[in-house]
Amino acid sequence: MTGRPARTRPLLLQRDFGVYWAASLLATSGMWLWRITGPILLFELTSSAFMLGVLSVASYGPILLLSFAGGVLADRFPRRALIAMSHGLTGTLFAVLAAVHATSGLSPALLCCAAVVEGVAVSLAKPALNSFVAELVPTDRLAEAIAVNTAQFTLAQLVGPAVATGLLVVGGPALPLAVAAALYLPLVVAMRLVHSHHAPHRGMASARLRDLVGTGLTAVRQRPVAQLLLVIAVGSIALEGGVRVLAPQFVRDALGRAESSAGMVLTGQALGSVVAVLVIGRVQRRWPPLRVARQAFVVIAFALAGYALAPNVGVALALAAVIGAAQTTSFSVATSALHQVTADHLRGRIMAVHAMALLGMRPVAGLAAGSLASVAGPRLASGAFVLLGAAGVLAVRRVATVLHEAPSTPELMASRPTLATSPGAPR
Predict the structure, then answer these.
(1) I want to staple 112 with a disulfide (CB 3.0 to 4.6 A). Which of 58, 288, 304, 311 is the partner?
(2) What residues does each domain of the chain span?
(3) For the whole model, what pTM was predicted?
């Protein structure tokens, strides 16, 4: 490559970041193969919406319980090693599941146990993954790298459900599970190829575990801005319960289609997320970020109401795309702001709290959605999540107030976020 200094090249053309991004895209796509195949297979075995909620708890519960331990490890040890180990474990798990299903078949209990193991692996990897981007790029390009990395995740959301649906039709559940196992291998290899610029801070490796945990928890507890930004992200993720968790039952009982059509609805949601990533930079240049987040929650509330009343798969797919775009927008605003206010020596633990707040909320939302759908049906259960959209609007307004009132906190804040100081920001 000639004509442009390496520092100014597009990030995807820079060796370390490009290799990491491509391998992460494959691994995340593999994760979505599991996240689509597991619930569909479980619902075919049990015909129980409640069991869909149980599977969500089994998958995301370990993340709620163990992510902070993963954050401590991410600040204490090389993040590359943690990422490689956890993804190697997950790929092996999916290969075993594919083999078992192809030979003797999977049981509901085995699916739930596998979800627990996968959740433990994610809890170890997620804080390191969230922090690792900062090791691959210069500080002045970190915001750009976060946006590009978000595009990787949302693109995998688009590819994974679509591929899972096709593989389920062609080869049954064993095929997408086997492909998912293969897709985890490139990231394990990539961790051997990329150059990491992170070394644990002096004294971190020898510090007592209790002290590391206490420092990270204190950093969040004493910073109202960080707490509120996490609340916004939690609201964005919890809203998934209205679409993603209930999709197999929604398409069957509310729309009269086969459970495998759930992949179409989830593909629409992922497509909306991809569109949001492409335009969010332009949107934020025109409007203050908190105003963007507030309007995103308003859109989510109205789109969820329409989705709950959708007469067919086409309408449900279109509204799921709107919901996906608005969710990604509100989530991106909160996450980029949290990176802005996080010092590097706390990044692993703060990102662990981020993972706990995001992914740990999913079992709660999933169990609530599954339980409500069992009693009142999938339409009412999906519609009930409109209330979370309204709560998101209030949370964004509160963030704006705290940002105006709270003093700067250099220990945690790498730079003062300009979220509520632009003209027209919500007051």
Answers:
(1) 58
(2) 10-405
(3) 0.64
